[in-house]
Amino acid sequence: MPCVPASNLVNGDVDLPDPSGKSFWLNGSAWQFPNYDNVDTFVNRLVRQGLLVCDPIVESVLRGEPQELSLRSVQRRIVQATGLTQGSIRQIERARYATILLQQGVSILDTVEQAGYADQPHLTRSLKGFIGKTPTEITQRSEAEQMSLLFKTTPFR
Fold it and tell me: What is the distance between the alpha carbons of residues 131 and 103, in angstroms, rounded to a whole number?
């Protein structure tokens, strides 16, 4: 969102003026709060208005493609676009992958190895921090539960 610094959005919030209980002001226009049924339309409208953009460098770096820019320039572009470092993004991806493995019935120790954690306490700290649950809590859940970091289904790289 070029009109809002990414650093304000990571672990924080932005107060947007509220013209009514059902909308907010963004970049000089009133926007209706999206709901589950129209969130795709909302995001598409943000993109059309240029209020939500994607830096192609970020996508290609996350896919592991080589860059013509210097390492430092790439790092700056990623932080500017996402508010996160590449290391933070990798940690989130690894926690997401480990959670998917645990939900699929992979043992905790096998998950440690497959997701690349040093040991079980390392896995536990990571999942507690990013997912809010320990590996045991994830494996012992009785019904499917939606977790925000699990929207992607592709494996960790």
Answer: 13
CB of 80 closer than 8 Å to CB of 70: no
Domains, the chain = 6-82 (no CATH), 87-150 (1.10.10)
Helix-, strand-, coil-residue percentages of the chain, each rounded to 5? 50, 5, 45
Dist. CA 130–CA 93, nearest whole Å: 10
Categorize the per-residue pLDDT at 136 as very low, low, confident or very high, splitting at 50, 70 and 90: very high
Residue 149 has pLDDT above 60, yes or no: no
**pTM metric for this prediction:** 0.69
Query: Which runs of consecutive H residues, i.e. helices, occur in the chain?
Result: 6-9, 39-48, 56-62, 71-82, 86-103, 108-115, 120-130, 135-139
In sequence order, what are the residues at sequence separation of 6 or more whose Cβ sits closer than 8 angstroms to the Cβ of residue 9? 1, 83
Whole-Å CA distances, 40 to 1, 34, 46: 16, 9, 10
Give the 3-state secondary structure of residue 102: helix
**Bridge partners (DSSP) listed for residue 31:** 24
Is 111 in contact with 135 (CB distance < 8 Å)?
A: yes
Name the token pair of 52. 């939500």
